[in-house]
């Protein structure tokens, strides 16, 4: 099956004050559709940069990034943003929920921005599955860390993106909630055929993916398939 995400020889240098940091060095990666991939590697090896490049959040210097058959590197920033809104959901370590909005309002932000209609039935199913129906009127600061992360997962899922990019989604959670989040991502993959790419420091959680990619010094070095 064709890869849903394919990077070939991608290079990214962050132009610093003194010298540039090479965050990606001829980095290549292929991800199969509806698969769950984890990316592990030491701090600073380029994991977040790789995820941000796949999600079109940053521009790279050279190489090819093909997502769902579309080349991102030739797009303008606005085109990448539109592509991201249509196809990609992001989950972050610090949840990125707006504290002054209720849970429901947070969930509606992407729909409002995109002037897109909500599939109410689908959304209700996701909320039920993530056990969030009873917290919809609460504010994020009234929720536990695990609940907040479940809200951010719901926000990523309910727009039915084909790809979910999760950057250390369990980094701020205790063991029990961390395991639950990874199980939920697995379920999203199973139920909604979403492709999940998860960056983590946690080897035990990384092993729960179908494919584990190891990054070192700006490159994906190897992979294991279970
Ligand atoms: N915006 C930026 N400006 C300058 N340098 C950056 C920027 N973002 C990342 N870097 C540098 O690029 C390299 C890769 O960073 P990246 O955040 O991708 O690594 P990481 O593997 O995700 O690290 P961690 O596990 O600590 O989150 C690091 O040397 C980092 O200091």
Automatic annotation (TrEMBL):
<protein>
    <submittedName>
        <fullName>ABC transporter ATP-binding protein</fullName>
    </submittedName>
</protein>
<dbReference type="InterPro" id="IPR003593">
    <property type="entry name" value="AAA+_ATPase"/>
</dbReference>
<keyword id="KW-0813">Transport</keyword>
<dbReference type="Pfam" id="PF00005">
    <property type="entry name" value="ABC_tran"/>
</dbReference>
<keyword id="KW-0067">ATP-binding</keyword>
<feature type="domain" description="ABC transporter">
    <location>
        <begin position="5"/>
        <end position="226"/>
    </location>
</feature>
<comment type="similarity">
    <text>Belongs to the ABC transporter superfamily.</text>
</comment>
<dbReference type="InterPro" id="IPR017911">
    <property type="entry name" value="MacB-like_ATP-bd"/>
</dbReference>
<dbReference type="GO" id="GO:0005524">
    <property type="term" value="F:ATP binding"/>
</dbReference>
<dbReference type="InterPro" id="IPR027417">
    <property type="entry name" value="P-loop_NTPase"/>
</dbReference>
<dbReference type="InterPro" id="IPR003439">
    <property type="entry name" value="ABC_transporter-like_ATP-bd"/>
</dbReference>
<keyword id="KW-0547">Nucleotide-binding</keyword>
<dbReference type="InterPro" id="IPR017871">
    <property type="entry name" value="ABC_transporter-like_CS"/>
</dbReference>
